[in-house]
Amino acid sequence: MDEPNGLLAIGGDLSAERLLSAYHQGIFPWFDDHQPILWWSPNPRAVIFPDQLRITRSLRKSMRNRGYRVTFDTAFSAVISACQHTPRSDQNGTWITEEMVDAYTQLHYLGHAHSVECWHEEQLVGGLYGLSIGKLFFGESMFSIKTDASKVAFVTLAQRLQKAGFPLIDCQVPNSHLTSLGATDIPRKEFQHYLKNYLHYKFEPQQDPWHDITLYERPR
Question: What does the alpha-carbon distance between residue 59 and residue 149 come to, in Å, rounded to a whole number?
Fold first, then answer.
């Protein structure tokens, strides 16, 4: 992930209460092992509108022909570990420290952080994790060890969130991977409008996109 603009604060902790309060204000932590906790709110903000998702011809072919299947919340620990340890050509090391792993795992146990898994046969080959609050999803990190696996996971998530009425997915800062899927920048003021209007939505259990955690989906 490219270093974002918009550094707001330094220090504090990664308790569930502090993290949820930060996300409600459009703020997220991002720091290296040798740094204190740094809190960011970039302007502009990279987001993807699910109804404007870009699926290229080659990605659609991967969704149809590679034998992938996608699950939700069946392997959170494996996904965040893979995001932490999978090498990236545009990044030296990782910003997902052990402290971050512990914090987001706790948020998963509390029902706020979620994972999307892409499988080939019985192998986890791609996925992503993030926070789902109200009708907004805050993406944190993705990984892929087979062609288009993380993109297939993301597209399946975006399609599911669109059906549930989510207006956008927060991508924090742009990169080429997200841009290829349709990520765009919006001003912080516009992003705050979405925070104000969608964070406090309460789902009926059957309408909650995370309700059926055992659901397997074939990408389409």
Answer: 9
In DSSP notation, 201-213 reads ----GGG-TTS-T
Provide the token pair at 67: 């034998």
Alpha-carbon torsion, ordered 73, 79, 167, 6, to 10 deg = 140
Three-class SS string for 74-120? CCHHHHHHHHHHCCECCECCCCCCHHHHHHHHHHHHCCCEEEEEEEE
Do 153 and 118 contact (CB within 8 A), yes or no? yes
With vertex at residue 5, the alpha carbon angle to CA 115 and CA 31, rounded to the nearest 5 degrees, is 55
- Structure tokens of 209? 């996109």
Taking the whole predicted model, whether its pTM rises above 0.85 is answered as yes
Encode burial over 96-129: b for 16+ CB neighbours within 10 A, e otherwise.
bbeebeebbbebbeeebbbbbbbbbeeebbbbbb
Interatomic CA distance for residues 14 and 22, integer angstroms: 10
Looking up tokens 């659609």 gives 60
User: Which residues, other chains included, contact 150 with Cβ-Cβ below 8 Å and sequence gap of 6+?
Assistant: 118, 126, 127, 128, 142, 143, 144, 177
Task: Compute the distance between CA of residue 73 and CA of residue 89 in angstroms, rounded to an integer.
Answer: 27
Radius of gyration of the chain (CA): 16
Tens of pLDDT along 133-190? Answer: 999 999 999 999 999 999 999 999 999 999 999 999 999 988 888 999 999 999 999 9
User: What are 117's two structure tokens?
Assistant: 């898994």
